[in-house]
Amino acid sequence: MSDVGTYLYAVALAEDPAPSEGLTGVTGGPVRAISHAGLVAYVSAVPLTEFGEEPLRRSLEDMDWLGETARAHHRVVEAVAAKAPTAPVRLVTVYRDDAQIRSLLEQRHDDFVDVLSRIAGRQEWGVKVYAAPSEAPQPEEPAAPSSPGTAYLKKRQASLHTREEAWRQAVARAEQIHDVLGSVAVASHRHRAQDPQLSGREEWMVLNGAYLVDEERGGEFGQVVEGLRGEGIEVELTGPWAPYSFTTAVETGESEARDDGP
Amino acid sequence: MTDLEPRGAELAREGRLPSERVALVDLLDRLLAGGVVVSGDLVLSIADIDLVRISVRALVMSVRESDTIVGARRDE
To answer: Which range is the signal sequence, renumbered to this chain (chain B) (predicted)?
Structure first.
């Protein structure tokens, strides 16, 4: 057995155009195409000293490593998706050898073809909606020592109430936005709200949506997003993305549909 | 103390992560919760998202702590 694994990035139809030459993968090594059963898998060799289970556990704690790996993975997916309908594979999926990849393409052939035909001619857009915590009700300003405790508590209660109400409204607005966007999209998916520490935003993220949109309706989708901007909320559009959020249906092993939107 | 209030708020506002990292967050949403999930004979896959989520969270906490330290030094 070797200490080299095969890292899988994406799967496409073998008949579709290939990405340009010279692609490099997660460790800087060349990306290769493995064609089998009418499908093509884009892979690169990775050392198991870095991509084995134990080293990986440590690496995943390292934001720099995670960032570099994610970006390298994304670069390959983007290059493939620029030319052909593409099913991106989840980050860090490593096989023992090429033979295993060929057997994957064979065994899951129909699932891959289904998914690829569903996302063909479509793009994923991301829409995040933030709500400003209602005019920041004075975060515990150091009360003058003379001010009575009850007044302080009342003020605090009132401010909590305002925040709750603002939150409820923002959530309702997000639902409405998700529905409107969903009506232009062929499929939608809600990701979990991002951790404020990761997003770097203090506002509440009330929607972290992904929308699969026909390519020719991309402009229309953008306009709908523009039209949603309004008081109290901020709308952020990202993309177009390769259809990351709409290819999870090809699951081998037990399937586990999670955080699916309504 | 009163002088510090607005400055603290300002720092907090500017304290957002660089845009490169903001985009990484969006990427991680997709790379860790999206994409084709395969399991079986492979050597490894992040089927266990929770492991990653926990790790990332722990990491962010550590990033944040070091930020605080930098801020504190500036105040000295």
So the answer is: none
